[in-house]
Amino acid sequence: MAHSFPSDFLWGTATASYQIEGAAHEDGRGVSIWDTFSRTPGKVKNGDTGDVACDHYHRFPEDIALMKGLGVKAYRFSIAWPRLFPQGDSVREERGFDFYNRLIDALVAAGIEPMVTLYHWDLPQALEDRGGWANRQTAYAFADYAAACANAFGDRVSTWITLNEPWCVSWLSYSMGIHAPGKKDYRAAVAAAHHTSLAHGLATRSLKAVNPAFKVGLTVNMTNYINESPGDPVVDEVIDLLDGNYNRWWVGGVQNGEYPATLLAAYGDLVDGVILPGDMDLVRCENEFLGVNYYRDEFVASARPEDLPLRDRAYMPFDQRANLSLPERFTGKLTDIGWPVTPHGIKDLVLRIHREWPGVKAMYITENGCAYGDEPDANGVVNDQRRVDYLRAHLSEVSKAIKQGAPVRGYFAWSLLDNYEWAEGYSQRFGIIHVEYATQRRTIKASGYEYRKIIAHNAVN
Ligand code: FCB
Q1: What is the pLDDT of residues 317-332, one digit of tens each?
Q2: pTM above 0.90, yes or no
Q3: Which residues form the domain of 422?
Q4: How many structural domains compose the chain?
Q5: Distance CA 408, CA 410 (A)
Q6: Is residue 381 part of a domain?
Q7: Among 93, 128, 367, 450, which one carries the catalytic annotation?
Q8: Do the beta carbons of residue 313 and residue 303 sit within 8 Å?
């Protein structure tokens, strides 16, 4: 059965600056927290850094030509803040602006719409040295940086994503210590969770001040928490906390100017002096779309430790993620990064968003994809059949969701290229195009050709 899409559906691919650009020390780029973190022993697999990555900084014309060949209509990329403002202050580095001007011009010339993410995790180290996202001032610095981008690129860019995955920016980075800056400080993570919301609200306003016609949104990573012990009230309670912490905090903030009450109660005095009077009016804002990154569902079989009071369970650093476990039915079926394949979840999620936050006027799937390490065979062919299956299954579910009323306007495959997968270094390959890092040779995978077919037919046949 064919799963078709609306005629104006926006087919795209996505990347992020630190994951692909390389040229880490060129043209005056300042140090980012990922430069520092990737050099901290034990933090990234094999000690890999983004110094060279896919060398996209020099090879972007080739990468754009590849996208054009696939029929891709839009490209979601991020701007490295420290290329434009090496110290995170107001001192500009024109060579950084020049690079993004060249990139955007080349996209426009190829007929590919540029969709810009302003923050995909490479914070100027100078700002981290003053507390990073745990410091309220970072939100104001971000709004200034957003205005500078709008002024420089807004004649050619009309769609802007402020931050990518503020949950990762806050919890994974300041509490779990898995991403840069690698802190394990619960209080700092709570502060970052608010300051990223505030940053989105402030940046939305500074972008709109430059051009009210801009389309602006936040990209969140969301999941469905599946209760594997239905009827157990302790599990229900923990799912409410996890869902609040991961899913509802940012969307509810932007849409309704409210954070989940159970979480605020659980965080208690950690929000005192962080959420200031009037803040929630700034957090709440009118956006044209919500960006949704979806990879997998999460499963909760039990709530451990059960004897802890609710408050302490909410305090429980999620680095333990003690409540999450994988049901046996997924054994042997995981992607290389260890994630289950749950395509129905993408449909459930966008329908839930549509139901629960009717103010979300449009959604883009700003990321979706999977890690499989398939390499070119003797004939140079990358037959990544499992990624073909993943792509087809997820897009079929997106098509069904749209037919059931979810306002999903586009899909961005993660990722255009195999790239630097953060703490996993180069060990995980998410691309629809293979990159041989030693030579920088690109090879379109079977999934890339499949994507081209889907785009051409505007359907999964
Ligand atoms: C998301 C990130 C993206 C990529 C994918 C696999 O959380 O936004 O940069 O690493 O996961």
Answers
A1: 444 555 677 889 999 9
A2: yes
A3: 3-223+342-354+362-460
A4: 1
A5: 6
A6: yes
A7: 367
A8: yes
